[in-house]
Amino acid sequence: MTEARRPNTALAGGIMMASLLLSRVLGILRDMIMAWTFGQGPETDAYVLAFQIPDLLFFLIAGGALSSAFIPVFSEYLHTGREDEAWKIFGTVTTVMSLFITAFIVVAFVFAEPLTGIVAPYKSGDLTPLIVHISRILLPAQFAFFIGGLMFGTLYARHSFVAPGMGPNFYNLGIIFGAVVLSHFVTPGIVGMGWGALGGALVGNLVVPFWVMRKLGSPFRPSLDLSHPGVRQVFRLMAPVVFGLSLPGVYGMIMRALGTAYPDGVNTALEYANKLQQAPLGIFGQSLAIAAFPALSQFFAQKRMDLYRDQLLKTMRTVVYLTMPVSALMFALSDEIVSAVFQYGKFTAANADLVSGGLRMFCFGIACWCLHPVLMRAFFAVQNTLTPVVLGTLTTFVFLGTAMALQRTPLGYLGLPLAGSLASLALVIVMIVFTVRTVGDFGVREFLVATAKLAAAAALCGLAAKGLALALPHGEGLGRNAMALAKLAFLGLGGAWVYYFLTLKMGFAETGYVARALERVSRRKPFRAAEPNEGEPRG
Question: Per-domain residue ranges for the chain?
Fold first, then answer.
């Protein structure tokens, strides 16, 4: 048996975390500029809802599963001495999906108006033309996301993470350019953000990965030969997702649709709150899941399930360790976050209250949403896409029922993000149960005990931060924003340090990862990745 060499997931995770951190920072800057320039009203609602049709296209043809189904198969051929066949699979899948996606884009472009009535059912008909116009601008970007995802997949399999990590950054920069520059050349100005999104998607998801692949010597030969067993395997793994509603983005689509029942501005408020919640999802959940995925796929291909389970447990523990304090502090300091990020220009105090209320409801699900991509890839790595899709579809219907029920309570629009948080918890629980059935016990009891301890430590930090935030003055005008920033810096960093020392006293090995990162920053000594037996889970 070939010796299973551990890929450097610490380095990969660091690269992806840094790239996605930059992406989230740019994403927040993008939303700040949108709020400052356009406020929160009908036009911003139209822009938010314009993503419904492209997102519908993405989920209908299994965009999220395309690269996740492709990477394990491509990796298996690449790491078992069949590189020529791996590239043949890439060429065929890319050619077939290019034709398929183009056809879907054309159909969605033609029928954009009736589709808008489905995905934004309660919105005023006066906004429909604007929603349709921006939707049609955004639709070609889906081609870049699909095919770019395949190119990124080849880079992930070869443990090249820098270019894939930069894709979302070009996308956000494009939207910022659209808001700052292009908005002055189109009417209404919000349309400029749509054109910026299209340009950013093409550059970040097609031009950049294509250039990197060319530099690495990646062959591409267009082909429609579906007879290769690897090609059939990719589409077999994708098939269940085509008919399922498994991805967390579906929750966002449903939330936007149900949010159209509320006054103008609520859709934008929920979108802003959701984007703030997604910052830790991208920085911690997605980055660590992406970094661990090639290793999980490799260990499965090499029949080393002991290494597979060890890698899965360590990744999940790291995700929970990092996201628990973030959830607690974002909940405690939600007013300060929204004030510091959005409350400028045309964005009013009433707008801020709508966003901060939604953010608090989203905070309950942050840790679970960050675990979700890890668990999804745990299944995809063993080439099992059916189980997570079935589980995701069932919990999607649970979410829909819960959201509609909570809407009828005094919570109103806040019932939508709360329903999403509850559904994320249910989804993670059932996915852990079925993960154990699929790959064996990876240390679930140990994981749950550690999670409970981490939640208690985070709650203490959050309560202390909230108490101090209420005791400190709020300020007025620009002084309010400055005070909010000061509170975030002081209470956020202070809370993080308290959490670090609490978990250090509890004996969590993950504190060692933080210490090594700090050593690298302070340059006391070179940073090194953990050895295979270093930092075994405890606590």
Answer: 42-264
